[in-house]
Amino acid sequence: MSDYTPKPEHRITDEASLRQLFGATHDLAMRKSLDRLSGHAQDFIRRSPFLCIGTQSADGRADVSPRGDPAGFVTILDDRTLAIPDRPGNNRLDTLVNIVANPSVGLLFIIPGFDDTLRVNGRASVVTDPDLLAGMAIQNKPPKVAIVVTVTEVFMHCAKAFRRSHLWDPQHFQDRSEMPSLIKIILDETSGAPADDKDMRALDEALEQDYQKTMY
Predict the structure, then answer these.
(1) Mean pLDDT in the chain?
(2) Best exposed site among 20, 45, 102, 122 by fewest CB in 10 Å?
(3) CB neighbours (10 Å) of residue 61?
(4) Which residues contact 94 (CB under 8 A, 6 or more apart)?
(5) What pLDDT does residue 133 have?
(6) What CATH code would you report for 29-165?
(7) Is 208 helix (H, G, I), strand (E, B) or coil?
């Protein structure tokens, strides 16, 4: 286990020192930031089946959580307001608890096959409006709550990260079987996974069945 600690002279502790290492920001990169959802941003959100939401607890502990549903699952209430359904999960409620304590959020919208992404920053609240939730129902099951975001900043993010990672290139896809299953990883790191392969397969199958029953 590494005990690496950077020397004080190698740590950057102020913005001025940081910016000295980089070139000037392109004017267009500054001007692209908007305070509302343009028509293009709204079109992007309607196409997106997946986003990541970043939150922070009251004491500054950061968290990022994925959210996914059929494309267009995020409701655009107006050009400054979004609503994200909260589907069944493991009930840790990390994102929701953080929002209650600290409403600042960051969203990253992703569309499969698109290398560029959409970033949205704003302030969120957890709401139980039955009319709003009813419109988010899937298989006649509305979410218990929705995350309503008041938008403060919107801009498109360039394609470099996705192109560097070859995220959508099938030639770079990795074989999932080269790592243990999710349930085995969790058991290895907690109570211990069964040594018997048959028992492990039964646990993996049970998890898949649970996915099917509790997706919505």
Answers:
(1) 95
(2) 20
(3) 12
(4) 55, 63, 65
(5) 98
(6) 2.30.110.10
(7) helix
